[in-house]
Amino acid sequence: LILILDEAHLYRGAQGTEVAMLIRRLRNRLRIPLSQLQVICTSASFSNPDAAKRFAANLAGKPVAGFS
Predict the structure, then answer these.
(1) From CA 45, how far away is CA 52, in angstroms rounded?
(2) Which residues of 30-57 are buried (b: 16+ CB within 10 A; e: fewer)?
(3) Can you give the pLDDT at residue 68?
(4) Over pLDDT 70: what percentage of the chain?
(5) Helices then strands, each counted (H, E), the chain
(6) Residues forming a β-bridge with 3
(7) Which long-range contacts link 11-16 to residues 24+ away (Cβ below 8 Å)?
(8) Which of 41, 46, 59, 68 is the right S-S partner for 52, CB 3.0 to 4.6 Å?
(9) What is this structure's pTM?
(10) Does residue 66 carry a pLDDT above 90?
């Protein structure tokens, strides 16, 4: 399963928490293990690649090492 989040930097605060929860609920509902969920986040607002990886990992509920 591929999930694409365009302009991912907009999902901060309460909205980010809600989106993160919905991603986890979707994965649980479909009974998809983390290894079968690919998440692509786009954003032009991050200048620090490591911060972008951490943000995407927290949003998607996946390990930071899975993002490049």
Answers:
(1) 9
(2) eeeeeeebebebeeeebeeeeebbebbb
(3) 87
(4) 100
(5) 2, 2
(6) 39
(7) 11/59, 16/59
(8) 46
(9) 0.82
(10) no
What DSSP state is assigned to residue 35?
G
**Per-residue confidence band for 14, with pLDDT thresholds at 50, 70 and 90:** very high
For the packed helices 49-60 and 13-30, what is the interaxial angle rounded to 10 degrees? 50
The letter for the amino acid at 58 is: N
> Which residue, 35, 27, 32, 30, is CA-closest to 65?
35
Which residues, 6 or more positions from 59, have their beta carbon under 8 angstroms from its beta carbon? 5, 8, 11, 16, 19, 20, 23, 39, 41
Nearest in space to 3 (alpha carbons), one of 65, 22, 17: 22
